Amino acid sequence: MVAVLRACQPQPWTVLRHARCFTAHADGNVNGPSPRIAIIGSGPAGFYTAQKLMRDVEGTKIDMYEQLPVPFGLVRSGVAPDHPEVKNCQDSFNEVAASPNYTFIGNINLGHDLPLHLLAKYYDAIVFAYGASKDRKIGLVGEDRPYIYSARAFVGWYNGLPEYRNLNPDLTAGDTAVVVGQGNVALDVARVLLSPLDHLKGTDMTEYALDALSSSKIRHIHVVGRRGPLQAAFTIKEVRELINLPDVNFAPIPSHLFPADLKQLPRPKRRILELLQKGRPYSASASRSWSLDFLLAPKELRYSSTDPTRLEGVTFARTSLANPTSVASVVETTGETVTLATTTLFRSIGYKAEPIPGLAEIGADFDERAGTLSHDGFGRLIGLGTSSQLDTDGESSQRLRSRAQPGLYCSGWVKRGPTGVIASTMSDAFETAEGIVADWKRATELATQSLPPRDGWDGVKREAESQGLRLLPVHWDEWQRINAEELQRGESRGKPREKFGSLEEMLRAGQRSGS
Ligand SMILES: Cc1cc2nc3c(=O)[nH]c(=O)nc-3n(C[C@H](O)[C@H](O)[C@H](O)COP(=O)(O)OP(=O)(O)OC[C@H]3O[C@@H](n4cnc5c(N)ncnc54)[C@H](O)[C@@H]3O)c2cc1C
Q1: Which residues line ligand 1 (CB under 6 A)?
Q2: Per the domain annotation, does 1 fall within a domain?
Q3: Is residue 173 a contact partner of residue 193, using CB atoms and an 8 Å limit?
Q4: Rounded to the nearest whole angstrom, what is the distance from the C-alpha of residue 74 to the centroid of ligand 1?
Q5: Ligand 1 center to residue 347 CA distance, Å?
Q6: Residue having the nearest C-alpha atom to atom 8 of ligand 1
Q7: Measured over all CA atoms, what is the biggest interatomic distance in the chain, rounded to whole angstroms?
Q8: Are residues 275 and 128 part of one domain?
Q9: Which of 255, 365, 458, 506 is 20 to 30 A from 383, comparing alpha carbons?
Q10: Counting atoms of ligand 1 from 1, which one is nearest the CA of 151?
């Protein structure tokens, strides 16, 4: 038996197969006149996919499922509170939600509260836009012990993500923290820890996080990466903000770490390196400091010999770059080690998508290596199936093949992996929507008759009830009540918003009046 895996490449036949099978009717007919689409996830990917679909095919109906009672994904629970301008994309999302063709179905965790397969017959297409809701681990012994926090948990905690309401990070163990990772999220963590509290008080950071930060003893932060300044993932805005923080020194970066001729570099990289090289004049009166520590790979956590719960330091393996002038250079270890004394560690080496239960049942495949759903490069899902074939010796064997999965699509971080800003997520969502529109148009051209439209959420709800599933959906009007209360709570504290940090509080606020 030979198993042959075909690479997940865009293939022209995929479109045709989808066109023929878009609605999964064997006779090729479609439910019309316009599609009814389920989107799983209400972050930027979900909303931008919905926006494009509703614009491009008149009458498209969108049911957007969201595990939380509140929408907007990482725009609410990830984007730093002191970057309110980034959240302006919510204005576009609100416009989408104002359409009578849009239904928000919050507080439903797909694959857990509601089996995925139950959706299939009530929609013309399902779009997976559920993001990357886990974080990557470094792989050190003891990584789950106290004083070690994932950036995802820490960010979720200060942003009011219910999952992390009880994280209660201890920021009082000592004055030095290490952040492992050099992306923008790592810099967000460092900036929040070093910012003057008065600056954060005027943001929508949760009150309990402000309380904890007010007693934080952390004064010095090492932001550590395996590679050099040229390879670091942060962008200029984030690093400039940190360098310019008041009352905070920035440790000079050794000159030998910079490429000899910065002028040869593409402009964005050159500007970052010039900024890092320039650094900031040392201030003897500054009470806080931070450094970018390059060419260090975490190797071992060091705990106190008298109190094994106390982190005392992290040992790093010194690395060197195989190709120092390449932005994509890999690193090699040198055999040298460096130990940084620290009492608190934040792990910020990336987010990770996970399969949701029931994917295989509906024919979808999760690519564990890539950490994304398997798709054709444009967001059309591909599943793995077997087919029989006759080998040259006349024996029948099973071959493992990738197969297009009609009517199933993906968008955003679960499609391309957890990298990229909201703007790139938007482009990515538009690409998926364009594929859906093309498939739908082709299917309607080929159809000989139009069947009645699909039932969408009404059908799902009916079937869920008949199966005894107890769902407590939160719709847009309830979210608007939650929103209004959060804004009101914020106003009374002199801040833009005070988020509810628990599901119970959110649900109570959603039901407070009118229902
Ligand atoms: C800490 C952090 C800060 C960032 N800051 C910025 C910034 O300043 N500027 C910028 O441009 N970009 C920023 N980004 C990037 C930006 O947030 C992403 O590009 C974008 O949010 C990805 O969108 P998405 O819809 O794919 O995923 P998400 O935003 O994660 O949305 C996914 C949604 O799916 C829901 N979901 C998950 N599982 C299920 C399920 N089983 N059933 C139902 N719903 C489910 C989730 O609750 C979530 O609402 C930041 C990212 C992070 C992590």
Answers
A1: 40-46, 65-68, 73-74, 78-79, 83, 86, 109-111, 129-131, 133, 155, 185, 188, 351, 356, 412-413, 420-422, 425
A2: no
A3: no
A4: 3
A5: 18
A6: 79
A7: 83
A8: no
A9: 458
A10: 1
Instruction: Please give the tally of structural domains in the chain.
Output: 3
Residue 86 lies in a domain: yes
Angstrom distance (rounded) from CA 51 to CA 65: 15
Token reading at 80: 């730093």
pLDDT along the chain (515 residues), means of 10: 31 36 56 88 98 96 98 98 97 98 98 95 96 93 93 98 97 97 97 97 98 98 97 96 97 94 92 97 97 98 92 97 89 95 96 94 92 94 68 60 82 95 97 96 81 90 96 97 97 96 97 66
Measured in Å, residue 44 CA sits from the centre of ligand 1 at 7
| Whether 290 and 383 share a structural domain | no
Distance from C-alpha of 24 to C-alpha of 17, rounded to nearest angstrom: 10
Q: Are residues 124 and 169 in the same domain?
A: no
- Cα of 340 vs centre of ligand 1, distance in Å, is 32
Q: Please measure the distance between the N-terminal and C-terminal CA atoms of the chain and give it in whole angstroms.
A: 60
Coil vs helix vs strand at 382? strand
The answer to whether position 501 is within a domain reads: yes
Q: Which amino acid is at 307?
A: D
What is the distance between the alpha carbons of residues 370 and 228, in angstroms, rounded to a whole number? 25
Neighbour count for residue 270 (Cβ, 10 Å):
16
Domain, as residue range, for 79: 12-133+356-469
Q: How far away, in angstroms, is 43 Cα from ligand 1 center? A: 5
Nearest CA to ligand 1 atom 30: 131
Claim to verify: residue 193 and residue 275 sit in the same structural domain: yes
Is residue 371 located within the same domain as residue 326?
Answer: no
**How is residue 25 written in tokens?**
């009717």
Which is it for strands 396-410 and 380-390: parallel, antiparallel or unpaired?
Answer: antiparallel
